[in-house]
Amino acid sequence: MSYQFLTVERRGAVEYVTLNRPDVRNAFNEDVIADLTAWARQAHQDSSLRVVVFAGAGKVFSAGADAAWMAKMADYSRDDNVRDARVAAEMFLAINTVPAIVIGRIHGAALGGGSGLAAVCDIVVSDTDAIFGFTETKLGILPAMISPYVLQKIGASAARELFLTGMRFDAHKARAIGLVHEVVALADLDRAVDRYVTEALGAAPTAVARAKALIPNVLGKMPAEVIDITADAIATQRVSPEGQEGLKAFLGKRTPSWTPTP
Known about the structure:
Layout: E1 6-11, E2 14-19, H1 30-44, E3 51-56, H2 67-73, H3 78-96, E4 101-106, E5 109-111, H4 113-119, E6 123-127, E7 131-133, H5 147-165, E8 168-170, H6 171-177, E9 182-184, H7 189-201, H8 205-218, H9 227-238, H10 241-251
């Protein structure tokens, strides 16, 4: 499938997806959103896809919303704005629920929707000098569509500080609040991503997909409320072909079938 503002490279079970509007710092507009939504919907149907790496071309990951796109919004009616917002919200939902492991490779800056895209990645690796920010309130708007995913990552306290002020923050703070998982020098960024890719490929694909789906079903609930959900989840996986293969591989002291040969 071809895209206007994405480049997609497939290496075995791993797909490298790069935002490709470097002239405008990989800013989001309706075309980028359409590309990302189309990619995510296809990814949902690809049972051979196990790992995704999101990156940005040029000097930054993504600077957020495109200025020209925002200028057009100035003339939108409220109904137009609702329709536009729902399209973006559906994009974030589609990416967030991709059953593969999604890794964000962040360099330079991830602002507004760029930080939102980081929030829907399962694992985020950032360069030391990257800058983050939920900067919408500085523009008189708010980080609405990304809020469910960001809150799951950073919690209400950090969101109050960062959503309300729109302040920018560095990679170390992003790691401290849970938006980022590892911070490395820019020269080491690809090596760090590769380590996560290797780890991800050692995990059983159906176990990954089911574990990813399990998290929102138990998040924020009391243990007693989710006994049926968790018991059903582990029982289903234990009797699945991968569950059986994993057990046999462990008992036989061998590598399971889903792990790539070095």
